[in-house]
């Protein structure tokens, strides 16, 4: 597939509102795919033109946003088509404008990456009933749009396994959790992590810290804050820190390397996404949240006309929608124990909490 990329474009809305967004258009080769029309995912004889609206930080976060891009890229590789990607401005106040821009430009489907779009996507979807939308980490039941699909994940289940791994590998009986923003979604990561660690050792000490309060999404893109939070935990005696902080996780890895301790990544296999070997060496495992698989499947369903709008698609351990990475071999010695807990969750013998 031949691709031409134009980065850092200045986008201007019809309302003359300037968007401080980073845009990229890519041309897909081949004969193209079948585009969807409306909330029922019916196929139309036209090339797919995906619109991808990122969460804070945009592509290059080596985590959540990059995973969404990888899934879209894989889908277009199979089905053909083009895409445009947009990122929010510095205070993320233009999320609705990004979705509107993509819809006005004829993109279909449009994928909003992140729960923060939940406050605006319902109204935009209503204004464009012939366009198919998806949102990562928000439920259609809470938004109510027939042309919208919710791409959800059992983050607490994958985080439970991360807690198991941390409790089995710690030598200080002291671990930590760094969340990007204190919102219910990230609290699911925290709750699962605590539950998994305490299932192995009820007496384990677990520190927890959030970088920013609800409403301030900068906590997902502030490595300096991530480093300070994690460093405080390492200085207090923790030897493994798990982050669910997006781009801020880089700071957690830097603190782990400086302290000669370990960290657990999130969303993508972050052992394979960091460039610095010193950081790679401290990433014990990552809690995989397969946004790539969910996005790829959604676009595939859109392309073949099998998509049912107005529903949620839940990705959990039973569908390999979440899990733990094994790159680096750091958890190979405890894999059998991790697998036992995983199966107990799948079988329903363990019900993982979503709140502490």
CATH class of the largest domain: Alpha Beta
What percentage of amino acids are in beta strands? Answer: 15-25%
How many runs of DSSP E, i.e. beta strands?
A: 17
Poorly predicted regions = 1-45
What is the string of SSEs from the N terminus onward? EEEEEEHEHEHEHEHEHEHEHEHEHEEH
CATH architecture of the largest domain: 3-Layer(aba) Sandwich
Mean pLDDT figure? 88
Number of helices: 11
- Integer-rounded radius of gyration: 20 Å
**Given the C-alpha coordinates, what overall shape results?**
globular
Sheet with the most strands: spatial strand order: 3-7-6-8-9-10-16
* Span between termini: 47 Å
Query: How many domain modules?
Result: 2
CATH topology name of the largest domain, in short, is Rossmann fold
Helix content: 25-40%
Looking at this structure, what is the CATH superfamily of the largest domain? Response regulator
State the major sheet: 7 strands, mixed
Q: How would you classify the helix and strand content by structural class?
A: alpha/beta
């Amino acid at each position: 597939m031949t691709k031409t990329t134009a980065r850092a474009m200045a986008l201007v809305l019809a309302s003359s509102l300037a968007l401080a967004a980073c845009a990229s258009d890519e041309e897909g080769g081949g004969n193209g795919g079948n585009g969807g029309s409306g909330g029922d995912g019916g196929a139309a004889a036209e090339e797919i033109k995906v619109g991808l609206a990122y969460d804070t930080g945009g592509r290059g976060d080596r985590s959540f946003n990059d995973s969404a891009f990888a899934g879209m890229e894989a889908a277009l590789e199979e089905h053909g088509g083009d895409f445009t990607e947009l990122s929010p401005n510095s205070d993320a106040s233009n999320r609705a404008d990004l979705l509107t821009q993509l819809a006005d430009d004829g993109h279909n489907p449009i994928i909003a990456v992140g729960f923060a779009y939940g406050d605006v996507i319902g109204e935009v979807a209503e204004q464009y009933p012939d366009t198919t939308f998806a949102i990562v980490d928000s439920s259609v039941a809470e938004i109510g749009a027939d042309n919208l699909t919710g791409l959800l994940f059992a983050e607490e289940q994958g985080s439970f396994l991360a807690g198991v791994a941390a409790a089995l590998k710690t030598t200080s009986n002291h671990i930590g959790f760094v969340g990007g923003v204190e919102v219910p979604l990230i609290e699911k990561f925290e709750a699962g992590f605590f539950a998994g660690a305490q299932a192995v050792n009820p007496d384990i000490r677990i520190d927890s810290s959030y970088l920013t309060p609800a409403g301030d999404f900068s906590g997902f893109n502030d490595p300096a804050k991530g480093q300070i939070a994690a460093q405080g935990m390492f200085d207090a005696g923790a030897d493994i820190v798990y982050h669910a902080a997006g781009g801020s996780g880089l700071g957690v890895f830097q603190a782990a390397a400086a302290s000669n301790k370990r960290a657990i990544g999130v969303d993508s296999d972050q052992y394979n996404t960091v460039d610095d070997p010193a950081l790679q060496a401290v990433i014990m495992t990552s809690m995989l949240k397969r946004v790539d698989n969910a996005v790829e499947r959604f676009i595939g369903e859109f392309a073949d006309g099998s998509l049912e709008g107005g529903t949620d698609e839940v990705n959990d351990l039973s569908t390999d929608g979440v899990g733990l990475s094994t790159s680096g071999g750091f958890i190979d010695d405890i894999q059998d124990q991790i697998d036992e807990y995983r199966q107990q969750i799948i079988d329903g013998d363990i019900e993982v909490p979503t709140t502490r």
